[in-house]
Amino acid sequence: MGDIASGLIFLVFALLTVFSAYLVVSSKNIVHSALFLALTFVGVAALYVLMNADFLAAVQLLVYGGAVAIMIVFGVMLTLRSGNAQNSNLDSRNALAGAIVSLLTFATLGLVVFTTEPWRKTVDLSATGTTTGDISWLMLTKYVVPFEVAAVLLLVAMVGAIILAKGVNDSK
Amino acid sequence: MPQFGSDIFLLIANWIRGLFGANTYAADVVMDIVKFIMIYVVLVLAVMVFVMLERKVCAWMQLRVGPNRLGPRGWGQIIGDMIKLMGKEDFRPDNVDKWPWALAPMFFLGITIMVFAVLPFGRGMVPVDLDLGIFYILAISALSVLPVVTAGWASNNKYSLLGGMRSVAQMISYEIPLVFSLLGVVMITQTFKTSAIVEAQQHVWFVLLQPIGFVVYVIAAMAEINRAPFDLIEAESEFGCGYFTEYSGLRFGLFYLAEYANLFLISAVAATVFLGGWQGPFLPGWLWFAIKVLFMVFLIMWFRWTFPRFRVDQLMHFGWKVLLPLSLANIVLTGVGIYVYQLIFPGIGG
Fold this sequence. Notes:
The structure holds two protein chains of two kinds. By secondary structure, chain A is mainly α.
C-alpha cells in the first residue's frame, strides 16, 4: 500500500516538474517563466526526497529558491523598459535554435546515463547513519580537495563582485 | 520520571493508535492527519492571542488605551475583527496579474505552516522528527521571499513593486547571518534534529553557551519576517503598505495570519534552539514550551514598539558589515571552544 502511494506521489511530482519546465520555455512573460522555474525546482526537490536524498532536496530549495527571487528582480529590471510585461520573454520564439540545443543536451545526458555501469550506485551509509553526516564525512575526507577548490572559487567570485560594485580607486 | 500532566497529549495519541490495533499503516495515516489538524488549530489560536497581545502591549508601551470594549477587558475584539474580515468583498483590482496575485497569499501562509511540522511542541511531541530538522526549517523559509516578491510584482502598483524589490534585498541579506547564527548550536550538538537539540539542553541552555548566536539570531529573524524596526518592505509612511497594498478582505487576512504565524515560528525556533525547548522543572513540557514562546513573542513586540524604523542603507550596512562578521566570528569561536573542550575532556563528542 505504501508502494502504490509513493508511486502515485512520484508520478504527480514528475508530471509537475516536466510540465512546469515546459511552461518556463513557452511562457511569454518573463516573470511567469521565473515562477514556473521555481515550481520546477520544488518538483525536483520532491523527487530527491522520494530517492531518500533529503539533504540534497533541502539544499535544492535553499539555494535555488532564493535564486529565483533574484531572477525575478533582474527580469523586471532588465526587460520591462517598454512597460509591456506580456511580451518580455521574446527568446522563447526561437524554436529551431532551442530544439537543436536541447536535442544536443539530451543526447549528451542520455549517452552518459546509458554508458554508466552500474546504473544505480548505493553509497555505504554506515559512517554516521544520516545522509547529512555521510555527505559531510565524504566532503572532509575523500573529496576534501574539490571541496576546498570550490570554496576558493566562491571566494574569488565574491571578491570580484565586491570590486565590480565598489570600483577600483584610481587616485593614487 | 513521569511529570505532572506532561503526557496528556501522548495519552490521547496512544489512545488513537490503540483504536487501530495491529493495522499500523492506517494508524500512521490517521495520526498524520490528526497532527496536521492540530498544527492548524494551535496556529490559529496562537495567532488570535498574539494579535490581541500585540495591541495590548503596544497600548501599554505607548500609553494608549487599546481595545477595551468587546468582551472582558477587550479580549473579544479579535473575534469581531475576524468576522469583519471574512465578511468583506473579495475585491480584485483591474490589471493585476491574476493567478500570481491570487496565489501569492496562499503560498505565503502554506510555506509558513510547512515549517511547523518539525517543531518539538513538548516531550515526544514532534509532528515529524526529521533528521534534517533545523536545516529543513531554513530551506523552507528560504522560499518565503518568493510569494512576497510575486505579490508585489503582480499587484501592478509601483508601491507594491518597490516593497517586493526591497523584500528581496532584505530577506536574502539577513538569511545569511540567520543560518550562521544557528550553526554554532549545530556544531555543539552535531545534529540537525530538533528533538535531539532540545535533549542536549537538559543541563545548560544554549543561550548561555551561544550568547552571540542568540543575539544575531533574534535580530536576523526579525528582519527575515519583516517586523519593525525592519519593516521596510511595508513601510506605511514611505509607500502605502508595500507588497500587500492591493490586497483586501480575506486575502489580506491570509497575509496577516502568515505574518503572525512567522512571529510564532521564529519565537518557537528560538525557544527550541536557545532556550531549552520543553525542558524545565515541575510544569509539563508543552507548557514550558508555550511559556518560552510567549516570552520571545513579548520580547520581539517590545522591540517593535520601542525602536524607530531603520533606513534602507543602514539596514544593508548593519546586515553585511556587523551581523555577518559577528556570526562568522561566532562560528570560529565555537569551533575553537569545542576543540579545547575535547582536549580537556578526551572521549566526549567527536
